[in-house]
Amino acid sequence: MKLISNAVVYRLDLPPAANMAIHLQELPWEEMGEATLSRASFVPVGGTGELVVPIEGGFAFAMRYDEKIIPTSALNARTDEAVDKIKKEQDRRVYRKERQEIKETIHAEMARIAFIKTTVVNAFYRSEDRYLIVATSSEKMAKCLTGNLVKVVGSVKSETIHIDGLKQGLTTRLTNWLDGIENEGGTAAFRPFDVGSYVQMTGLEGGKLTVQVGDTSAAREGLIEAISAGFAVEAMALVSDSCDFKMTSDFKFKSIKFDATDATEDDELDAVGYWRHEAGVQSLIFANVISQLCTLFGYVPPIEKE
Length: 306
Known about the structure:
The chain is an alpha+beta fold. The chain has helices at residues 17-24, 72-90, 96-113, 139-153, 166-179, 220-228, 271-296; strands at residues 7-12, 38-43, 53-55, 58-69, 115-126, 131-134, 158-160, 194-202, 208-212, 232-239, 243-248, 252-258. Among the domains are: 72-112; 166-296, no CATH class.
């Protein structure tokens, strides 16, 4: 069961599960009105029917985000048609302000019948570490979730996990790791992790280089040449004992794959129990990965602020 395939991670002080459930009720799902373009709400998570589900070591919850999709090209085309009609029928110019008013009117008309895109984002909170693992690759969705948490919970002590110079740190460690292919002392550059089969780099002038091979060591010469030319690591795959993932230079995570975490055949779990089990195990594993990465790259928490 894939519950955490991508992740943006925060550190927050959240209340216990029972209190969280009360807070999340303040932003329930509702049908969107004709004039509403987007709406976030907290909804039952994991098919459990509960707003907050206790799991081993913490709890889980979910945000639903509904957004009306109005294609820019279609909006501009209809605006152009309306403007051209005025020009022909009234034989006059249409100035910028009037065009904008026409566009806003058409936008409102299109919003009434627009297709609604729904995104559900699960979040897993580890009480001891205070990690909030938001299972998405979208920073917009992650910020939307945390922003709405502040609305319903109130004062929230938070830290954004940001590691200064991570891009340079990844590049330096990759250089040491590449040196260590022939010199065993350097292979520990990412310990307790090892390098996976994906490295993405950016050059000084914005050029990009992606290496994806069965064994990164096979591309050793090319990577060393790129680093010498000023390329820096933008993202790379790392492997641990329990999962592998791609980490970006702004500390976001994609393509997370866990080793087998399924309950044993002796466990007689219903669907909800199985979901709780997987949520607890996967969030624990990934929380440990986060802690190891913070130690590896020397993360220093900032002063907490409300």
